[in-house]
Amino acid sequence: MTNLSLCAAVTAFVVLLGCSRPAAPPSLPAALDGGWVRGETETPREPPELVRKLGLARSHAAVYSGSGKLAVTVYEMTSDSGAFELVQKWKAEPGQIFLHKGRYFVLVQSPGMDTRTLSRLAGQIEAALGR
User: Fold this and answer.
1) Which of these, 27, 66, 85, 122, has the minimum number of CB atoms within 10 Å of its CB?
2) How many domains is the chain built from?
């Protein structure tokens, strides 16, 4: 391959790469075991400073209705290490569980919900991120 044809091939590859669509955000399940039904998904207005500082790519959130309200926020980070670092630095609060899966940091909140139920529901959300 001549230098000219190699240059043309590289240029074509870069142009095609630039035209590709960004990956779709992970979809949160429409329902969770126990009668929990997801409402509309939205983009959070003000991600926490720590999340932005560690490389936020995008985020979305939804509220599930069941025997109460369950708020789920997914922060997609620019790297796996950014999501992992969030797990290390996030300040835990009662009624809240957070997890990391790949580039995702997920916050699951329901004030007053017992930890066992919260963990079970968070596990279902985590499993859905891999699909």
Assistant:
1) 27
2) 1
